[in-house]
C-alpha cells in the first residue's frame, strides 16, 4: 500500500500473511491521539491505553483477539462530579484478506489497523448513565448541593404550592414594573 501511514493502532502482519498456523502476540501502549465516546463519558485525547493482542494467521485472513485496558472519564449523571471508569474490554475479530460484506475489517497491505476495532469495543462497553457510586443521591432539587456531601440535608417544610405560585407571581409583577420603568429609575426605586 503506497499510501500507508502508520498510526499507534497499526500492527504489521507481513510475517503472518498467508501462513495459516503462524501466530504473534503484541502489546501496544498507546497515547490516544483522538478522544471518543458517548455524550456523557469517553476516552479523552491523551489517555493511556494498553492493547494486548494475539494475531493468528488463518486461511481467510488474520484473527485478532485481545483486550484493551483504558480509563474512561466523564460526569456522574446524578450529581455531575467527575467520574473515572476503568474499562477492560475483550474483542475478537477477523481481518479478512478480501473485501467482503461478511467482514467488518480487512487486512490493508501488510498491516491491520486496530483503531476502529478498539474504538467500537470500548464505546460498546461505556456506561450510558455513569454514576460516581451506585447509591449516589444526586443534587438537592431545591438548592443544588450534592446530597452525598451533606448527609441529613433538608429544607424547611415546603411552602404550600398555591402560596408559592402567588409569591412567584408577586415577584414577577414587581420585576416587570421595574423593567417598564427603565433601568435608571428602577435602580433608584430599588434602593428606596
Ligand atoms: Zn454522583
Ligand atoms: Zn437543598
TrEMBL record:
Pfam families xref list: YceD
Domain of life, per lineage: Bacteria
InterPro entries named among the record's database cross-references: YceD
Protein name per its UniProtKB record: DUF177 domain-containing protein
Organism: Glaciihabitans tibetensis
Amino acid at each position: 500500500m503506497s499510501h500507508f501511514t502508520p498510526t499507534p493502532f497499526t500492527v504489521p502482519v507481513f510475517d503472518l500473511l498467508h501462513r495459516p498456523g503462524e501466530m504473534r502476540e503484541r502489546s501496544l501502549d498507546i497515547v490516544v491521539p483522538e478522544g471518543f465516546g458517548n455524550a456523557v463519558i469517553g476516552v479523552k485525547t491523551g489517555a493511556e491505553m494498553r492493547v494486548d493482542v494475539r494475531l493468528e494467521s488463518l486461511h481467510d485472513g488474520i484473527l485478532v483477539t485481545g483486550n484493551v485496558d483504558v480509563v474512561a472519564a466523564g460526569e456522574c449523571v446524578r450529581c455531575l462530579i467527575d467520574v473515572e471508569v476503568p474499562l477492560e474490554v475483550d474483542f475478537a475479530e477477523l481481518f479478512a484478506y478480501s473485501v467482503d460484506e461478511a467482514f467488518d475489517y480487512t487486512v490493508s497491505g501488510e498491516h491491520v489497523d486496530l483503531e476502529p476495532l478498539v474504538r467500537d469495543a470500548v464505546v460498546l462497553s461505556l456506561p450510558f448513565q455513569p454514576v460516581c457510586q451506585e447509591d449516589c443521591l444526586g443534587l438537592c432539587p431545591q438548592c443544588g448541593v450534592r446530597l452525598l456531601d451533606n448527609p441529613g440535608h433538608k429544607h424547611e417544610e415546603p411552602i404550600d404550592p398555591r402560596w408559592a405560585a402567588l409569591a412567584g407571581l408577586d415577584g414577577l409583577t414587581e420585576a416587570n414594573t421595574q423593567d417598564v420603568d427603565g433601568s435608571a429609575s428602577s435602580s433608584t426605586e430599588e434602593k428606596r
